[in-house]
C-alpha cells in the first residue's frame, strides 16, 4: 500500500515529496521512488554545456550583447566607417578571459565534489559488507561507520559498539558546537549489534517527514513485524557530523546527497554582483539611449544637409543607384552608432576585470592578514566583489569559532577571599597577560595537562603548601561533575565533558594536583597531590535550568560524608551558612571583577553530613524516586533540604576565549558606522556573555531588551515596548518609501527609513521568538526595533533563520550586507549576504568553500574592510569617473565635428588613433590609477575609521557623479574641438603654406585630447608610485613614437591605403603655433577643475580632505600601549554550565560502563534498567 501511494507522489517528474517511505535492504523498492542518491553536485557546467551556457550567461550582460550587435553592423559595408576587427578582437578577448575564469572556478567545484563523492564507506549489499564510494550509496542501504569517520548521509542509527546503543558525534560542521553530542538507537535495533546476518535480514520500514532543513527536529516511525516505534532527532545521525569515541555503528540511509539536512541548509548559490555593477548596467542603458539620441540628431542633420547642400555635389559625386536623402540619412544613423560607440568601449569591461583581479591579489598577498599558526593566508575567492567591501553597512556574525576560539580556559579563581590569576608589577599596576608572559611550571605534576596555561605562581605555592581551603577547592572540582575520562596510555588522560566549561574546570583541578582518574557507578578515583584516593559516590544531585547548581555526595577514605556543590552565585549564596557573610562580601567583589572581564563564573561550597541524617535522607530519597505521582517535586524538596547551610569555598572564572583582537575590531567597525548583529545557535546566556566580552554589550547602555515570548502576540508586545521605550514619538506604522530600481526600472523596492534614538540600546532575541518575528505581519516591527539598537544578538537561531534575517535587512534597508562565519550552519547566511566571509577555523571548511573571502581570524575583517575594501571602492569609483570622462570627451569631439563634415560620419581622428586610444594610449595609466591609488595609507585608515562612511553613502560614484562627468566632458570637448579649429582656421605655416588640412587638424585634435586626459589623470591621482609615473610618461612617449612611425614615408610606401597620413607629424609639430594651441587648450580644460576643487576644499572639505591635510602636517601617532582596564560589573557573566538537563543519571548507571570502563562516555539521556534511588534521580520516560 505504501508503495502504490508513494509511487504516485514520486513519479519521474519529481513532484513535491509529502512523506518519505524507506524499506531497509530493499534497493529495487526504494529506487522506484526516484529518491536522490548520495552524490552531491555544486558545479554549474560540464564539458558539453560549458560553451553554450557560459556564452548565454555572458551575453545576458547588456554590454556584451551590444558589442555583438555592433560587430554585426561593422560587417555591413554600406554603413561601416571602421574596420570590423576594432570590435571583434576586444570582444573575443573579454569573452575568453571571462570564460577561462568561470571554467577555472567550476573545475575547482568539480574537484571539491569529486573529493567528497569518492570518499569510501562500508555498505551492506546482498549480505556482504562492501567498500563503496559515497556517491553510490542509496536510500535504504545499511552502512557501517567507524570512529573518526564522517557520517555519509542522514542515517537512522541501528546499533553501536557502545553500551545502551549510544554513539558520540561531533556536530561542529552543523551547529558550530565542538562538545560531543550523544545519539541513541532503539533497543530493538540495538540488539542486532554488529551481526551481519541479523542486519541483512532486517526488513524495517520507515515513514518519515520529507527532506527539510530543520536540524533539530525529526519525525518518523519505524515499523518492524507490524509494531510501530517512534523516531526522533536523537536517533538520527546527520551528514556533516563526525563519529567520535565509538568503535563502530550501523545506520540506515534515510536521506542522501541533496536531500540531507546539511545540503538543504546550504541555500541556493546566487550570482553576486556589486551595487556598482547594477549602477553601471543602468548607466550603460542610459548611455545607449543618449548615443541613439545623438545619432538621431546627426541623421536628421544628414538628411537636411543632403537636401540643401548635398545636391550641389551630385554633379561630380553622384549617389549610388537607389540611394536618396532619406536612405542616406538612415545609413548615416548606423554609421554614427559605430563612430560614437566609444562612449561604452569594451575596454571598460576588460579594465574593470583587471582592476578587480589586481585588488584581489593584494588581499591574497597581504602579510598582515596571514595567520602563521595555521599557515593560512587571506584569500579572495571571488574576484568580482572587491569594491563592495568598501560599502558595508551591516555585518552578520556567527559567535562560536568566529568571535570565539571555541576554547574554554580556567582563568582566575577566588579561594577563601583571596584572588588568584592576576599579575601585578612592582608599582602595583595590573599587567596584561600575553603569549610572552611566563607560565607556571607544572613539571612537578606528572599527570598535568601540557596544554594548560596559568600565570599566577601564588596559587601553585598555596596548594603545594597544603592550604586546606585551596585543596578542598580543587578536590571539589575533581569530584563534582559528570565528566568521563579516557586513558589510552598510562598517564595520558583525555576528558570528555557535556560542556567545555566543565572540562576546563576538571582540567584545572588536574593541573593543580587533584587529578580525576576514573569513575564507576559507585566510585570516583582521583590522585590528590600524587596519592591515589577513591571516594564512594553516594548521590548525584543533577543540574537543570531551574536549580542552576549541581551537587555530589561522597564518602571519603576516612568515612566522612561530604556534599560538594557548585552553581550560579545567586543560587548558592541563598544556601550558605550565616558564618560565611564576610567571606561572601569579599567573594562578591571578586565576582564583579570577573563579570567585568566577561568571564563565566561559578561559586563553590561544601557541607559535611552526619551518618544518621544521611541514612534517613537516603530512605526518603528512595521513596520519592519510586513515587508514581509528584516524583519531581518531592525530589526537588529533598535537594533543597540537603543543600542548605553550606560553607563557601570560593569562585571560579572560566573564559570563553575570544579570538585575538575581537573587541578592538568591533570597536573600530562601530566607529566606521557599521552595525554588527550576532546570529548564533548558542544559548542566550552564552551569547550574552560574549556580547559583554566583545564590548558589544556594555554596562553603560541605557537598556538591554530581551525578547523571549512564546506567542506571536507576546513577541509583538515585547518588540513594541522596546521601540516605544527607545523612541516614544515614533509612529505606530513604519515609514516605507517605495521606489523602482534596476534595469529598465522594473524592480520594485521598499525602504524602511532609519529612526533617530538617543543613547545606546541592545536587543537580544531568542530563536523561537525570532520565528514569530520573521512572519510577514511582524517583520517590519522587528526590523524597526532592531535597527534602533546599537547591538543585536539573536540566540538559538537555525541556519535558515540566519539567512532570513539577512534577507530582511537586504530587502528593507537597501544596504550592503556582509555575513561572516566558520561552520556549515553559516553557509545559508554567507550565501544570502552581498558578501560572504568564511573563517578557516576549528569547524571544517564548509563555510570557506561557500564564501567570497576567507581568512583565519575575525580581527582581519577590519583590515579587509577599512583598508582593502575602502581602497578598492575608491579606486573603482575614480577609475569609472575618469574612464567615462575621457571617453565622453573623445566622443563629443566627433559630435561637434559632424557639423563641419556634412554629417557624413567621417571620423575626426586618424583610424589608428581610434583603435589604440583605449587599448594602448590611455589603458595603462588608468589601470595604475585603479590598482595603486590610495588617499591615505593603511595606518591613517585605521586611525580614522570614519573615512569608511562615504562608501556606505555611495558618495564617490552615483548617477549624480556620472552627470557631473558628462558635463565636464562636454565642456572639455568644446574646448578641444573649437580652440584647435579656430587656431588653425586660415592659418599658414612659417613658409607660407596652408596648415588647415584635415590630417593636420586630426593630429592636433588627438594630441590635445591625449595631453588633456593625461593631465586630468595626474590631478586625480593621490598616491604617486614609480609605476604610475612610468605608465603616464610612457603612454605619451608611446603615442609620439607610434604616431611618428605610422605617419612616416616608409609605412606609407609599404601600406599605402592603411597609413595615409604621410608627413603630417613633421609638418605640424615643427610649428610653434601648434604647440601654443596644445598648451592653451590644456590650460583652458584643466584650470576650471583645479579652481573648483580648491574652492570646495576651502568651503566644504570632506573627511578625506581633512585627513589628507593631516597626513601632510603630522606623522601617524604611535599605537598606544595596551594596559588592561579593570571593569567592575554587578551583572553576573553567566555560570559555567551546559544550559540543559544534567546527566548524572547515566554516569551512575550500572550498564553505562559495561563494555569499556575506561572509554570516555558522555551522559545525555538514557533509560536505566533498574532504578538505583540512592545514586541518581531517574530520567522521566
Automatic annotation (TrEMBL):
CDD domains assigned to the protein according to its UniProt record, in alphabetical order: P-type_ATPase_APLT_Dnf-like
CC cofactor: Mg(2+)
PROSITE patterns: ATPASE_E1_E2
Gene Ontology CC: one annotated term: plasma membrane
Sequence ranges assigned to domain P-type ATPase N-terminal in this UniProt record: 22-87
Principal subcellular localisation of the protein: membrane
GO molecular function, one term: ATP hydrolysis activity
Domain of life: Eukaryota
The entry's keywords: ATP-binding, Lipid transport, Magnesium, Membrane, Metal-binding, Nucleotide-binding, Translocase, Transmembrane, Transmembrane helix, Transport
Transmembrane spans: 82-100, 282-305, 325-350, 879-900, 912-932, 961-981, 1001-1024, 1036-1062, 1074-1096
Catalytic residue positions: 398 (4-aspartylphosphate intermediate)
Catalytic activity: ATP + H2O + phospholipidSide 1 = ADP + phosphate + phospholipidSide 2
Record domain P-type ATPase C-terminal: where: 848-1101
Record family assignment: Belongs to the cation transport ATPase (P-type) (TC 3.A.3) family. Type IV subfamily.
Protein name, as recorded: Phospholipid-transporting ATPase
Annotated source species: Poecilia formosa
Taxonomic lineage: Eukaryota, Metazoa, Chordata, Craniata, Vertebrata
